[in-house]
């Protein structure tokens, strides 16, 4: 489970971001991408020395300015569970497809499924 | 063996310092990975990380990627307040606070290393724990002083036509 994957699992949850300049930004994560760019809503921004606070309804943070993030405590467990569910769903789908391709005039399908099985099992092994 | 006279000396060096590495460990071929993947062995172990702003964080490394973005669990941030060498009577002080799940963007990492959980707290016996907000206040004050001093130094150097490479964001 890569850090950025974990971050996508934190969507709609409250997070804290500290920027390189020391500003901290509290808010609910709306979206993030592979550059760690974030969009947040219901944001409270505080100055580096923690003496000024700013309430913002929405904000966008460019990933390159981030120093670190603090994520919800239960996130790791949630992400693990979500991952497990996804895997089960995938396996079920694969089995269904395999069942369909057992009829003789779908041989080409069967080999395609075998390939997709391989590509699916690769990320599973990473964990 | 012709080199036997030297050998006793070598072994005595090794006995003196248990941290002296084996020569084989110094060759890059002994490592499976040399980039960010080299920390794969530290996953699920307790590590410490020093950030560019001078923070020390301690936690269990759960995952990382090719940028050395790190995810730590049960993280603790610790501040060490070193005293001036002249006043040895004053105990050295530290403070710590719980930070939970911590994701560090790789470019802010100065160094990280694995901790021996049996020995990690040994050094703190000589240190006195104080409340975190207090330590934080003192730290920011000393860092501000350091920045001021460095800026003055750069200014003086500049008058002599020299350039100092001090950056206020590098406080480690």
TrEMBL record, chain A:
Gene Ontology MF term list: RNA binding
Low complexity: compositionally biased ranges: 100-127
PROSITE patterns: SM
GO biological process: mRNA splicing, via spliceosome; nuclear-transcribed mRNA catabolic process
Span list, region Disordered: 80-127
Function field: Binds specifically to the 3'-terminal U-tract of U6 snRNA.
Name of the molecule in the record: LSM complex subunit LSM4
Gene (UniProt): LSM4
TrEMBL record, chain B:
Domain Sm: 34-118
One GO biological process term: mRNA processing
GO cellular component, one term: Lsm1-7-Pat1 complex
Chief place where the protein resides: cytoplasm
Pfam families found in the cross-reference section: LSM
A Gene Ontology molecular function term of the record: mRNA binding
Top-rank taxon: Eukaryota
CDD domains the UniProt entry points to: LSm1
InterPro entries: Lsm1 (IPR034104), LSM_dom_sf (IPR010920), PTHR15588 (IPR044642), Sm (IPR047575), Sm_dom_euk/arc (IPR001163)
Key words of the record: Cytoplasm, mRNA processing, Ribonucleoprotein, RNA-binding
Record localization: Cytoplasm; Cytoplasm, P-body
Keyword Transferase in annotation: no
Subunit structure: Component of the heptameric LSM1-LSM7 complex that forms a seven-membered ring structure with a donut shape.
Function: Component of the cytoplasmic LSM1-LSM7 complex which is involved in mRNA degradation.
Family the UniProt entry places it in: Belongs to the snRNP Sm proteins family.
Protein name: U6 snRNA-associated Sm-like protein LSm1
Naturally occurring in which organism (per UniProt): [Candida] railenensis
